[in-house]
């Protein structure tokens, strides 16, 4: 018998910029990604989300495919500038209608919506005022959240404020590979603080408006393992946990920063700077649940690798991410390590108690083979199967995990990698008018859902 409880939700996920398109239609304002992706050299072959996979115009077709697959829940994000073109103030009713109709259509097909308020597409108007480095952006986010609650809150019970702060702050303010293309750790830390404040303001508004539901935060779940059992590598791995995990989980689950890291950051750079009342805001407005996006673990060394690894590098002088010689990697250099999902879930439970969890992303990016007209994505099926096994093990060990949302429902735009890497259950043919085609994994996941996880 499967360990998955009856109320467990089998879903899938996407994000607005990566699927919707219609970037300048029906009153939508520009986002930072609309502007950034049009600058030469910023993305693979100049790809952008102007059209993406045209979900905006094909939404009914896509929801029918979700229903056919048997999805019990769909996690999607709302485009802030589609609702508020300037980030605040004048409401774009056409944008509100798009999401309202989507929610109604999902519910009509028995699919529970889970809304992510922010999946990286900040209104450009707010970036022009300072973006996340400006506290006024957090205040604008509260206004945006209140608009969403007031228009959709009677029909949507599951809400997440932010997706993967470590990514949009890390790449936006440290590596410079995402907008606003800054490379300054001190500015990154202050921007990150304003994200946590925006989250706390949105949680406070959610409770104050008495929305019948639950509100959480979505973080990367990236366990770290030392390369060797040397004291140096173990210390480096613990530091990676502190900087890449505790810094991003503690403020939303404990209501405060890790004390030692906070003291070190403020001594070194004078950030984060707290406005009066920030301590109370964080302490009194914590999550109802945490969303976990798990793709891989990182192996940590105290010494830099002999040759550069793809993806994240660690923090120069403190710890380095290295390739594990005993492991298997995708063609994009991401380790396939399902045990890390079990370990990561139990790590969160150990540090934060019995917080409800949802696996809000988990998936394999690959170039899917097409054989005799069929998209035969067996590696994706194998990847998801072993991760569902690992998730079941965590539930058996007492973790309160309430849903599983593979990334992604449909092939979509990867932020910097264009369309060369696929993640979806549904293939999109960019040579044939963006036609949708069910992959082998579509039918496999349909059986998993129908059997409530027993058949996999």
TrEMBL record:
Record's GO cellular component terms: cytosol
Enzyme kind, highest EC tier: hydrolase
One Pfam short name: Glyco_hydro_1
Example of a GO MF term: beta-glucosidase activity
Binding site for substrate: 18, 119, 163, 295, 407
Domain of life: Bacteria
Residues in the signal sequence: none
GO terms for biological process, alphabetical: cellulose catabolic process
Enzyme Commission number(s): 3.2.1.21
UniProt-annotated catalytic positions: 164, 361
Annotated catalysed reactions: Hydrolysis of terminal, non-reducing beta-D-glucosyl residues with release of beta-D-glucose
SUPFAM superfamilies registered for this protein in UniProt: (Trans)glycosidases (SSF51445)
Classification via NCBIfam families: BGL
Family: Belongs to the glycosyl hydrolase 1 family.
Protein name per Swiss-Prot or TrEMBL: Beta-glucosidase
């Amino acid at each position: 018998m499967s360990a998955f409880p009856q109320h467990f939700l089998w879903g899938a996920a996407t994000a607005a910029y990566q699927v919707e398109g219609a970037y300048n239609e029906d009153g939508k304002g520009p986002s930072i990604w609309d502007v950034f992706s049009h600058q030469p050299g910023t993305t693979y072959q100049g790809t952008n989300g102007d059209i993406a996979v045209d979900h905006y115009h094909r939404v009914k077709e896509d929801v029918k495919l979700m229903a056919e697959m048997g999805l019990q829940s769909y996690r999607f994000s709302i485009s802030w500038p589609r609702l508020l073109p300037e980030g605040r103030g004048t409401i774009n009713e056409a944008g509100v209608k798009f999401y309202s109709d989507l929610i109604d259509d999902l519910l009509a097909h028995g699919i529970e919506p889970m809304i992510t308020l922010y999946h990286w597409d900040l209104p450009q108007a707010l970036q022009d005022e300072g973006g996340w480095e400006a506290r006024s952006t957090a205040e604008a986010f509260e206004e945006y959240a209140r608009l969403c609650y007031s228009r959709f809150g009677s029909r949507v019970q599951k809400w997440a404020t932010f997706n993967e702060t470590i990514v949009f702050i890390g790449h936006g303010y440290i590596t410079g590979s995402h907008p606003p293309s800054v490379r300054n750790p001190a500015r990154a830390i202050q921007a990150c603080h304003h994200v946590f404040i925006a989250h706390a303001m949105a949680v406070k508004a959610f409770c104050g408006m008495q929305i019948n539901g639950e509100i959480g935060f979505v973080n990367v779940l990236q366990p770290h393992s030392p390369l060797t059992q040397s004291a140096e590598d173990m210390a480096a791995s613990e530091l990676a946990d502190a900087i890449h995990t505790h810094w991003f989980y503690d403020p939303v689950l404990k209501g405060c920063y890790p004390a030692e890291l906070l003291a070190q950051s403020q001594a070194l750079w004078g950030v984060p700077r707290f406005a009066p009342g920030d301590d109370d805001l964080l302490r009194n407005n914590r999550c109802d649940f945490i969303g976990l996006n798990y793709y891989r673990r990182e192996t940590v060394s105290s010494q830099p690798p002999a040759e550069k690894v793809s993806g994240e590098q660690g923090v120069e002088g403190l710890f380095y991410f290295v390739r594990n010689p005993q492991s298997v990697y995708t063609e994009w250099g991401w380790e396939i390590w399902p045990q890390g999902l079990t370990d990561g879930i139990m790590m969160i439970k150990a540090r934060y108690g019995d917080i409800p969890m949802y696996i809000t992303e988990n998936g394999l990016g690959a170039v899917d083979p097409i054989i005799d007209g069929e998209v035969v994505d067996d590696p994706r099926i194998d990847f998801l199967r072993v991760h569902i096994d690992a998730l079941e093990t965590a539930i058996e060990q007492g973790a309160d995990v309430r849903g599983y949302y593979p990334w992604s429902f449909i092939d979509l735009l990867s932020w910097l990698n264009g369309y060369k890497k696929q993640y979806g259950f549904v293939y999109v043919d960019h040579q044939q008018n963006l036609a949708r085609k069910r992959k082998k994994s579509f039918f496999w996941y349909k059986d998993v859902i129908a059997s409530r996880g027993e058949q996999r």
